[in-house]
Amino acid sequence: MRPVYWMIAVCWLLFLIVFLPRRRQKLAAAAHHIRKKGKGEREAMETLAKQFIGKECIIYTITSNDGSVQGTIREVSGGGMLIEDARGQMQAVNLEYVTRIREYPRNKKGKKESVILD
Fold this sequence. Notes:
about 25% strand
């Protein structure tokens, strides 16, 4: 019975060693990115985001799990933006975490092209 407890303890230890540093690194990168942005950069990002209101876009952030948020930008104000996804659900994104915005690519017929997110 004791070897089972020992094995569980080893698994937990390995989990902590492997996954906790990654989370810390991601949080540290986010904090660095926010500190680095000045007031001018925040205003520039808000101005850029306003150009995409009503368009379906891919918004790359430093905090989302897969690195991007997809949807139609509905509103940009106060350092944030509201995005409506394909299911009609609204999401709020803080512009301080946004690294890049691009319009969803379409082919000549206007249909969405497949996208490989980087």
